[in-house]
Amino acid sequence: MRGAGDELSIGERLAFYRRRRGLSQAVLAGLMGKSEDWVSKVERGKRQVNRLDVLVELARQLRVTLNDLLGEPVLFEDEEANDDVPAVRDALMSPQRLSRTLFGSALQPEYVDPEPVARVTEEAWNQYQNGSVGHVIGVLPGLIRSAQQLESGASGRPTYARRAFAVSARIHHLAATTLSKVGESDLSWIAAERAMQAADQSESPLVLASAARAGTHALLAVGRFDDALSLGETAARWLGPEIREGDPGALSLYGMLFLRTAVAAARRQDRQTTRELLRQAGTAADRLGEDGNYWQTGFGPTNVELHRLSAALDLGDVANVVESGAAVRPTHLPVERQVTHAIDLARALSQLARDDEALRVLLDAESQAPQLVRHSSMVREVVRTMYRRAPVSSGKSSPLLGLAERCRAVR
What we know:
Strand content: under 5%
Largest sheet: none
Domain HTH cro/C1-type: 14-69
Pfam families: HTH_31 (PF13560)
Helix content: over 70%
Shape: globular
Oligomer: single chain
InterPro entries: Cro/C1-type_HTH (IPR001387), Lambda_DNA-bd_dom_sf (IPR010982), TransReg_Diox_bact_type (IPR050807)
Keywords: DNA-binding
Structural class: mainly alpha
Number of helices: 23
Order of helices and strands: HHHHHHHHHHHHHHHHHHHHHHH
Protein name: Helix-turn-helix transcriptional regulator
Low-confidence stretches: none
């Protein structure tokens, strides 16, 4: 159930799912290659699990999804208490998408000009990068329906079809990325699959590479790190001819695919591969020569450094993230990238028990993009941990309690 158990810690969910499977702490410890004391401390909140690969393995042994263990998704509400995720789900799961043969007559194809739809889509992408996730979720149902109309009217019109499918791919990519950000990983995968299917029909290598980014996002969200690595590397190779021509959009997508695969490698604790993928991304950034935003990638030397720090956090190099992270000033990048970096830095500070600093970082990030902070499972777990170890004397009106309530880390 959406929103169920979001006030529980990962350890408390671990205990719940372990008991539901009928496993003792000793048996789960044996399956994980850990000690019984390790399991006990995690369940009681005495020990934090900061590595995603360990969480993925716990979820596998408990036969639940990674999102079940993380407590995702929770009910998405913006500042006006709107929740349009069900409408996005309805648009994505329309039965008319299942069979053109069965529903072809019901679709009543009509000409839809792709250019106005493309403009609205790119504006929605800008809103996403500015952190206005609620706005994007609000417009996605209509955009998805427009994408379906574009696709249904593409038959027999080759030039129109290529453009229509390119716009559809961008819409579904936006849906996949946004849904992944708010914890709707299953819906994100549906949208990513639709993005790549449409991109295939667009016959554009850049559209396909961009859609592949959506696929890596969806795969990372569910802990399928090997699959994300394979998809990203395959899509990067596909861009070879465009890279040789020096197209800045192709360079940005190429570099961004290597950044996503570097994250996948780091989450499976493969340091050597992570370093190599970051090196290749850095080479692409040097060729680009700027912090650009082609295809809404925000790609360039600064974004490579942000991903280098994010990978270091996944690899457990916490002190390095804290030492180097505060010196990075990504203020010229999209707000979404700035806030994602702030969340990484706060996680690292919290792991070193520097809670006051972590709280300041999160509050600053929340002032930039409230929805990105309040609907992050990582933020929720960090805030919950800090709140539980905060002294009672901090009072019930503290900034930490306020943030915890806004993130639904406590009730």
